[in-house]
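---------- Forwarded message ----------

FYI, see the DUF342 domain-containing protein record below. Original note from H. follows.
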Amino acid sequence: MPTLTTPEPFQSKRLKRKQFSSTGDVHIQGDLLISTQILVGGDLLVDGDLEAEEVFCLGKLTVTGSIRVQSLYVGQALDCGGDIEVEFLLKTGCGAEWMARMLELDQAKPAKDGSPYMDKLVHPVILQRNDHQEVFGGYGDIQALGYLACDVLDCHGNVQLDGVFDVVEVQYIGGHLTASEIEVAGDCNCKGEMFSETDITVAGSLFAGSVTCEGNIDTGSIHSQGDISAWGYLRANEEISSLNGEIHCGRWIATKSTIFAAKYIKAGESVIGEKGISCGDDYGILAATTLRRSRWAKLGMVSAAKQPEHLLSGQFVAGKKTQPHRCAGEKA
């Protein structure tokens, strides 16, 4: 059986077409402007901006400018020098078989030469090369020097942004999420650490390995395997829980539901859990750590349906209700 050679990469200067496809690697030395679909079986490098309706790239996608598309599917990593705007779904870590079925290549008529339907997506040599990429670091990662905005995100690896993370729903992030600000209109599921240089706002439920925020956290509910840490306040409508770590906020913590941490619960000001507050048996609850004792009753209170165990600092006040826009310690 003859040995297949790697196909020559497709190279072009600024490219503007209705549709574009290649089973190998592609290098565009300028903008890539496609009015409908882009299909690349290998790596795609664009020295400029990328605009299209749908983009399928089985290899690594690198764009030095910005990306503006309706849907984006990447097999390996996504690296962008500007902003990423995706109207609908952004997905990384896509396998060859999944992508071929998504494109319904398996439903097409068999090729006259008997070649498999996968050859329509990717050259066999490129496919063999791609199969080994998952063992290397960076598989499924998203990096951008600007912001990321999309409707639904499903990312196999890490997400690292210099700008804002603005997503309607995060189905899954398989690694860490780092951004200057994090805004999610629905639910957010992140396997690793979430880190924001400013605020984290999640309207729905937030699930993460750990959460670190240099601003405030506002969420429907928050569940973390590890620590939850905020320089400002932490506010939720439903449960706040750290299953294996501690909760530590520079200002106050408040929820209409319960607060639980396996270790310490620490707050510079008040801690309010309308339905209950609990921590690990060998730990404690420390409120008002930044306040004088004379201010505990007003600004350093700990409030729940009943007095929590292991209260180490702060003054217990029964039945305090959280307010829609502010908490004890927040100026009116």
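H. also flagged this: The first helix runs from residue 96 to 102.
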